[in-house]
Amino acid sequence: xxxxxxxxxxxxxxxxxxxxxxxxxGHTVYVxxxxxxxxxxxxxxxxxxxxxxxxHVLVADFSDLEAVxxxxxxxxxxxxKIDILINNAxxxxxxxxxxxxxxxxxxxxxxxxxxxxxxVILDNIKQSEAPRIINLSSAAQAPVSEAxxxxxxxxxxxxxxxxxxxxLTMWSFNxxxxxxxxxxxxxxxxxxxxxxxxxxxxxxxxSPAEKGMDILIDLALSEDYKNDxxxxxxxxxxxxxxxxAPAHPDAYGDSKIERLLSITNQxxxx
Length: 270
Description:
Blueprint: E1 4-7, H1 13-24, E2 28-33, H2 36-50, E3 55-59, H3 65-78, E4 84-87, H4 105-120, H5 122-125, E5 132-136, H6 146-149, H7 157-178, E6 183-188, H8 196-202, H9 209-221, E7 231-234, E8 243-244, H10 254-269
Parallel strand pairs: 1-2, 1-4, 2-3, 4-5, 5-6, 6-7
Antiparallel strand pairs: 7-8
C-alpha cells in the first residue's frame, strides 16, 4: 500500500537516496530542500528514474525557524495524512555559524527545526494507521549546554553538533512517550558515510551512503520495528546492519529532558 512520506534534507546524501528508494517502491514522496531549483532538479531525476509521478516539492531553509513554521503550516493544510516523517536534514560544517536569531545553526537545523516541524504536523501524522517518525541522531552525542542552546555561548563545531544530536534524541524519547500511537525511533545511520556532509567535515568516509539509506528504509517500512518506539538504533554496531543500543545516559534522564524541552519551548516563544 502506498504511503505518504516526507524526507527532510533529501536533495543529496542519504536523504536523496532514501527518497529515491521510496519512490521506486511506489510511495508518494515529498522531497525537501532549501533551494527550490535544486529540489525541482532532484524531483525530475527521481521521476525519470522511477517512473513515479507522485513526487512533490517542499522548500524551506531549516536555519530559519520562521521558514520552517511556514512550511509546517503548508504541510498541515495540504497533506492531510502523513504516514512517515524522516527528520533527516542536518548540518555539521558551515561558514554561517549563528543564524539571524543569533542561534548556532547546527542547533537550529539539527534539533530546533525538526522539533518545530514535527509538532505542527503531529495531527496529520496521527491520521495514519501506522505512523512512524524517524529522527536522525548520531554516534556523536554530548550533554546539552543551556548557554549553547539559547545562543549565549559558542562551542566548537564538534561539540555543538554532538549536543544538537543528543537534544534530538532526548526529544525523540519524550515524543514516543507523549504520542503512544506514533512509532518514534532515533537512529545513528552510520558514522562517516560517503556523503557531502562527512566528506566536507572530515575529508574521508568509512562506509557507503547506501548503508544509511538501507536502515532508514528498514526502520520506516519494516514490520520488524513496529514495536520499537522510543528506542535508539545504532547502525555502527553491525555490518551490514546495526541494532538497538543505549543512547547517551542523558536521553534517559526525565528531569534533564523536561529541562531541555522547557528551555526549547521558551526559546521558540521569543
